[in-house]
Input
Amino acid sequence: MNNIAIAIHGGAGTILRSALTIEKEQDYKTALEGAIEEGYKVLAAGKSAVEAVKAAVVCLENNPLFNAGKGSVFNHKGKHEMDAAIMCGQTLGAGAVAGVNHIKNPILLANKIRRYSEHVLLTGEGAEEFAREHDLLFESDTYFFDPFRYQQWVAAQHDNSVTLDHTEDRKFGTVGAVACDTNGNLAAATSTGGMTNKKFNRIGDSPIIGAGTYANNATCAVSCTGHGEYFMRAVVAYDVSCLMEYKGLSLQQACEVVVQDKLVKIGGEGGLIAVDSYGNIELAFNSEGMYRAAKKGPEAAFIAIYKD
Output
C-alpha cells in the first residue's frame, strides 16, 4: 500500500503570482486537491492505476478552470475540439481520441477505445459514433461555454492568432494524471481542449501515444503539458521511458534530461508528471509554473502552482 502513488497536472506555462488573485489561486488548489484525492481513493481501495488516472482526469475535465472537458477553449469556428488519451503500463493497451465536439468526458471515450476497439486513436465524427455505441454522455455547446474562454477566443480572433490557452499568461491548461497501484502497475491519462482559435482541425501531443502520454511497467508513466508541437517533435513521453530502459537512468534523471535539456534546446516550453513502479514521482517543468499535485502512500498531498 505504501508504494501507491498518483500525480496530476492542470497545465504549465508562465504562471506568475501577479497574474492570479488570492481567491483564484485557492480555487485552483482546491480543484487540484479534489482531483488528487479522488484518484488516490481509487488506489487505496485496491483498484487499478488505470481506474485511478481516469477518475482524477474526469474531475479535472468537469472543472471549467482547466482547458479540458467543460473548460475547453474555442477553436477558430467558435467550437470545441477535444483530445484525450489513456494507457495501461501493464498491457501497453492504449486508447485515444481527437477532435471531438460534444463528449462530456473525452477521457472516458479514450478508455472505451482502449478496452473495446481494435484501434488506438479515433477522431471526429467516427469517434463520436463510437461514443454513442458505448452510451457515453454528450453535452450541448452551452455546457462547454465559459465567458473567460469566450473572451480569449474573441481576442485571438481580433489578432488573428492561435494561442496557448491563456493569451495573458501563456498557461497551457491541458490536464493529466499518472499512477502506480498496489501491484506496481502504471497508467497515464491526458486530456485537453487544445489551442485557442486553432484552425484546420489541429491536434496536439496529448492524444499521441509516446508524445504526450505513455505508460510502461518496465519504466514509467508520463503525462505532458505544454506547446504540443514541440512535445510531438521530441516524442517527450516515450523519450523519458527510453532513457530509463536503454541508458539505465532513474526517473528523476530521465525527466531532467528531457525537460530541462532536450526540450529547452528546441524551444519547447511546458512540463510533465511521471511515476515509476516503485512509486517515485517527478513533477518536471521548464516554465514559470505548473498546476500540479502528488500523493504517495500515507503522506499528505503535495499541491503547488509556482516554480518555487
